[in-house]
Amino acid sequence: MKVARFGIDAGPWDAPRRWLVLAPHPDDFEVVAVTMRCLLERGCELFLEVLTGGASGVEDVFADGWEAKTAAREEEQRESCRRFGLPENSLRFHRLPEDEQGHMRDDRGNESRVRAILDRVGPEAVVLPHGRDSNADHRRTFRYFECWRNGREAKPLALLVRDPKTLGMRLDLVTVFDQEKAAWKAELLRCHRSQHERNLRSRGIGFDERILGVNREIGGEVGEAYAEGFALLEAPLVSPDRPGPETAMMELQRFSELKLARSGRSHSILP
User: Fold this and answer.
1) pLDDT: is 84 or 239 the higher one?
2) Residue ranges of domains in the chain
3) What are the C-alpha distances in Å from 130 to residues 50, 88, 209, 223, 233?
4) Residue 239 phi, psi (nearest 5)
5) 22: part of which helix (H) or strand (E)?
6) DSSP secondary structure code for residue 225 in this structure
7) pLDDT tens, 103-153?
């Protein structure tokens, strides 16, 4: 199947005017910043709802204690959004209750909170992590959203994001961009100083390069310098947090995806 290009190829992504980025953490918005910029330039309404404080992703050398770490990450997100041009009243932080590992608790309370967010915003389109992801918050965000969406007669468009922790996905839609937009996106990513410094210490590359590296990989798959990549949610997707009936072939494909992801070549025919 041909990969569609946002802003060039017509598709279901052209109709929505009210868009929500359902972000498990501060910094997930910037992963899709170029696509969001295109939507803003079209005159679409953008909303960013950040579910957790992301304190577990902050090193002690950067901030001391849960409250200080959470406050630091939220201010980083505010600064990035100011540079992006997102109105202040379009950004909300929720600090959903967390478990012992620092992930949002996987319980009915948090699912109800996410449902309430979705009901309040009433989005025509939602951008969120893919369900097959190594990060528990990403998986749970997807699962809570999918359960909410499946119960609605009028289902909003859902774009699932490919990022460094995605464990393989089908590529349906890309937003291609050049070096100038990559430099602009890198500035937004570096606003997340806690993540930038942590990546420099732990990986030897900054947060900007970690995300742009994935964008170069996706761009290479479609013959461009950079691209943000998405899968369209069409049918219910079984995520690692919610096993369900699957064929042996799908199990084999999942194993293949995990191997590809760990080798740094995460790409799959599955959504």
Assistant:
1) 84
2) 4-262
3) 16, 27, 21, 23, 9
4) -95, 165
5) strand 18-23
6) S
7) 999 999 999 999 999 999 999 999 999 999 999 999 999 999 999 999 999
Distance (Å, whole) CA 28 – CA 133: 14
- What is the number of other CB atoms lying within 10 angstroms of the CB of residue 64? 10
Strands 157-161 and 125-129: parallel
- Residue 271 pLDDT greater than 60, yes or no: no
Tokens of 168: 């393989």
Q: Are 80 and 30 in contact (CB under 8 A)?
A: yes
SS3 state at 72: helix
Cβ burial of 80 (10 Å; 0-12, 13-18, 19+) is: buried
Cβ distance 77 to 110 under 8 Å? no
CATH class as words, domain 4-262: alpha beta
pTM of the entire predicted model: 0.86
Structure tokens at 193: 């100083």
Residue pair 261/224 in contact by the 8 Å Cβ criterion: no
Provide the token pair at 148. Answer: 């909410």
* Distance (Å, whole) CA 122 – CA 11: 21
Residue whose pair of structure tokens reads 């072939």 in the numeric block:
249
Name the H helices within 101-238. 108-121, 136-150, 179-190, 193-203, 207-221
Length of the chain equals 271
